[in-house]
Design brief:
The complex is a heterodimer. Chain A has no helices and eleven strands. By secondary structure, chain A is mostly beta strands. In chain A, strands 2, 4, 5, 6, 9, 10 and 11 form a seven-stranded mixed β-sheet that branches. A four-stranded antiparallel β-sheet of chain A has the order 1-3-8-7, with no helix packed on it. In chain A, strand 4 and strand 5 form a beta hairpin. The relative contact order of chain A is 0.31. Chain B is mainly beta. Chain B contains no helices and nine strands. In chain B, strand 3 and strand 4 form a beta hairpin. Chain B is globular and about 40 Å long. Classes of the chains: A mainly beta, B mainly beta. The interface between A and B is medium-sized, with 21 and 26 residues.
């Protein structure tokens, strides 16, 4: 059974940093690109970042470019999102999502999300 | 980039059909057959319902169908059921090699 479980969310002050983790199981982790998608309270979904199966290619939304860094450790089946210079508008539930296939652009498995609150 | 445009809400009675539109540009929806639709119940993670414009993942009811014409994609739900009441989001690959979501549509089953 495919599972992805996020952790690492919490309350952080503006300008602070936080690292999210996502542990995956039930599929060959290194064979699939992974993504982060966030959802601000009461708002819609926003794509944040993507990383290829090997970790060699990373992509970011303009809203987080230069502040967030996505990485993965395939030996630990774990995806990370390092978030620096956090702003109030980064407050959201952050979802880890598995890409369905490397040749398309949709997500077939999502975690339950981890809540990040940026506030003083 | 601005979010893809979806109606804020739609409603229908049990047994009826409804359609949710998703409008973008030639740089996203119109330029690629990589439109997906997700269903999200309150407090839950999104669930993939349609991918690559019109394909259904295994286990998704055939009451859900997708299509595209020009820069607008559509999700149709036939034979509405109470359990279909949820938020629905479209997404599209873009020419910037990013992914864009719609603003979401709240479906109410009357």
């Amino acid at each position: 059974e495919v599972q992805v479980v996020e952790s690492g969310g919490g309350l952080v002050q503006p300008g602070g940093s936080l690292r999210l983790s996502c542990v995956a199981s039930g599929f060959p982790f290194s064979a699939y690109a992974m993504n982060w998608v966030r959802q601000a309270p009461g708002n819609g979904l926003e794509w944040v970042s993507a990383i290829s199966g090997s970790g060699g290619t990373t992509l970011y939304a303009d809203s987080v470019k230069g502040r967030f860094t996505v990485s993965r450790d395939n030996s630990k089946n774990t995806l990370y999102l390092q978030m620096n210079s956090l702003r109030a508008e980064d407050t959201a539930v952050y979802y880890c999502a598995k890409k369905q296939a490397n040749w398309n652009h949709n997500f077939d498995f999502w975690g339950q999300g981890t809540l990040v609150i940026v506030s003083s | 980039q601005s979010a893809l445009t979806q109606p804020a809400s739609v409603s229908g009675s049990p047994g009826q059909s409804i359609t949710i539109s998703c409008t973008g540009t030639s740089s996203d929806v119109g330029g690629y057959n990589f439109v997906s639709w997700y269903q999200q119940h309150p407090g839950k993670a999104p669930k993939l319902m349609i991918y690559d414009v019109s394909n259904r993942p295994s286990g998704v009811s055939n009451r859900f169908s997708g299509s595209k014409s020009g820069n607008t994609a559509s999700l149709t739900i036939s034979g509405l059921q109470a359990e279909d009441e949820a938020d629905y989001y479209c997404s599209s690959y873009t020419s910037s090699n990013t992914l864009l979501f719609g603003g979401g549509t709240k479906l109410t089953v009357l």
